[in-house]
Design brief:
By secondary structure, the protein is α+β, with helices and mostly antiparallel strands. The protein is built from 7 helices and 9 strands. Strands 1, 2, 3, 4, 5, 6, 7, 8 and 9 form a 9-stranded antiparallel beta sheet that branches. A hairpin with a 4-residue loop joins strand 5 and strand 6. Helix 1 runs antiparallel to helix 2. Bound molecules: flavin mononucleotide. Flavin mononucleotide binds next to strand 2, strand 4 and helix 3.
Length: 210
């Protein structure tokens, strides 16, 4: 079902419970995005601050914990976004669906996961093709003189075996973002709708003028 159809169903909820329903639907859809390869929010913009300059990039939503309001993605431990997070953990996400014209903005704080068991489980979930993303010979974002896949030449022409990918676990990082607030905007011909949710330090849901 499209995001538009899903939120249209939510909008049928009695007005006294409507804000809670939209908030719950946003989190259901975030969870669904990690399970449905074609979900419009699977690839979303993750934003950090580099000193005082905003930096955005697309990442893949990997897991969502609705109760804890945590979203995770995988990255290379050597990538600049890791340094951004260590220097300033404040982050935002931007999720958008061009078909439904629904935008969600999330704000919160990021940490680099250190739980070995969780990291190992996440690593196990990555297939050999994708593990190549962590096999860069140079740290990501290093400058180079020629177009480069940043891989050992043999892994450009063939997929490594799982065994060959194992050393790359050293470069594998899971970024965990705890979401403190959310804003939902739905562009509708009958009038746009907008609400916001605060989860921390207190819980508050409210309508906003679009
Ligand atoms: C469709 C798509 C999906 C991507 N997924 C990820 C991802 O899950 N993790 C990641 O670190 N980079 C991902 N990237 C690359 C990032 O957008 C970015 O270029 C890279 O991580 C370097 O970011 P940084 O220099 O800010 O650290 C993806 C890019 C695209 C176009």
């Amino acid at each position: 079902m499209s995001l538009r159809a899903t939120f249209d169903i939510s909008l049928g909820t009695p007005s006294g419970r409507l804000l809670e329903e939209i908030d719950a639907t946003v989190w259901e859809q975030l969870l669904l995005a990690t399970r449905m390869p074609r979900h419009p929010w699977l690839y979303s913009a993750f934003c950090t601050l580099e000193i005082d300059s905003p930096q955005s990039r697309v990442v893949v939503l990997r897991s969502v914990d609705r109760d804890q309001r945590v979203i995770r993605f995988f990255t290379d431990l050597r990538s600049p976004k890791i340094q951004n997070i260590l220097e300033n953990p404040k982050i935002s996400w931007l999720l958008f669906d061009a078909t439904s014209l629904i935008q969600v903005r999330l704000q919160g704080e990021a940490t680099i996961a250190s739980d070995r068991q969780m990291l190992d489980a996440c690593w196990e979930s990555v297939d050999a093709v994708s593990r190549r993303n962590y096999m860069g010979l140079q740290p990501p974002s290093s400058s180079c003189n020629l177009p480069s896949a940043n891989l050992s030449p043999e892994f450009v022409v063939r997929v490594p075996t799982l065994e060959e990918t194992e050393p790359a676990i050293e470069n594998f990082a899971v970024v965990e973002t705890v979401i403190h607030s959310m804003e939902w905007l739905y562009l509708k011909p009958s009038g746009h709708l907008r609400m916001s949710a605060r989860y921390w330090p207190h819980h508050e849901l409210t309508w906003l003028e679009p």
